[in-house]
Amino acid sequence: MFRVARMTEKGRGTSKGGNLEAAKPWYLKAGDARAQSWLGRAYMSGDGMQQDTVEALRWLRLEAGNGDAEARNVLGRWYERLGNAEHDLRQASKLYRQAFEKGDFDGRIGYARLLLNGPVEDRDSVRAACWRCRSCMSAAPA
Description:
142 residues; mainly alpha
């Protein structure tokens, strides 16, 4: 079902162009991790569909609970965002750390950033430098 959704979204196998709204029911039917992650990010960004933060968070939390690093990183950014009613730097830090433990590069950067600029009692510039360095090393070509 996920493949059908992606093909519908991209306009492959049809005489019509890509159609995100037509693909949405297929993503919902797919119900797998990729579909959940896709739905969460699409609802959050509003890219190609109506932005809906409540739906985005529902799908992202479901996928993060299933261990998806990218979903944890997106949720970390949500909790870090100023002006957000759920603003919680400790939760953001926890999610970033979980994301980087699963190999998500952006999660490592977010975690290091909060070690430098997060809640005062959690700041640790030495650990931040260490995680930042690890991020740079893992991004460098082998």
